[in-house]
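Hi everyone, sorry if this is the wrong subforum. Our group has a chain we'd like a structural model of before ordering constructs, and none of us has done structure prediction before. Sequence below.
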Amino acid sequence: MDLQPKISEAIAEHLTVIEQLTAMSSLILQVAGELVATLRRQGKVVLCGNGGSASNAQHIAAEMQGIRAHPGTSQGLLALVLTENTALFTAISNDVGYSAAFRRQVEAIVRKDDLVIGLSTSGRSPNVIEAIRAARQLGARTVALLGESGPLADIADIAICIPSTSVPRIQEAHMLIGHLICELAQRMTTGEYQTRFAAHAG
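Answer:
Right subforum, don't worry. Here is the predicted structure as tokens:
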């Protein structure tokens, strides 16, 4: 069986999706601006997602930890992922329900100065939806990274919808957006971007 054409098809599909992100430049800049605003008010970023989106959330949070308010200072952006504490995550899922696994944590740790980012390729993940709703009720800013549609697009303050139904292609686009918003936020705060702080994520 010749699978070479499948590789070419996947790469072509990836490039098509990524090229369409250019049309979303203003939204990407808005999210970068939200990171900067969160840093300046000494808030934190809280991310959540399931499966591959949980992995993306962890990667993006690692990149965010390197954003500094000023060159050579220790003031940086705190970023947390709601799947990091497996004991807490599984306890809430078991005792209350999986759909509440993120919401309960948001209710406990999120404040109005914070930013909550939810990742969902379908845009319909119940636990991510509940987290974003809870964050908004608390007065925090919210961002959603989605596929081409889903109820999350109407709930979050800013929603970036990837024009694709392919889970891998959507997740690849989310990672590029994650890298971009971190780079842009660093440029907004210090006028420069150093890749050294992102090296550990690779």
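For your construct planning: The radius of gyration is 17 Å. The beta strands are 44-48, 78-81, 115-120, 141-146, 158-161.
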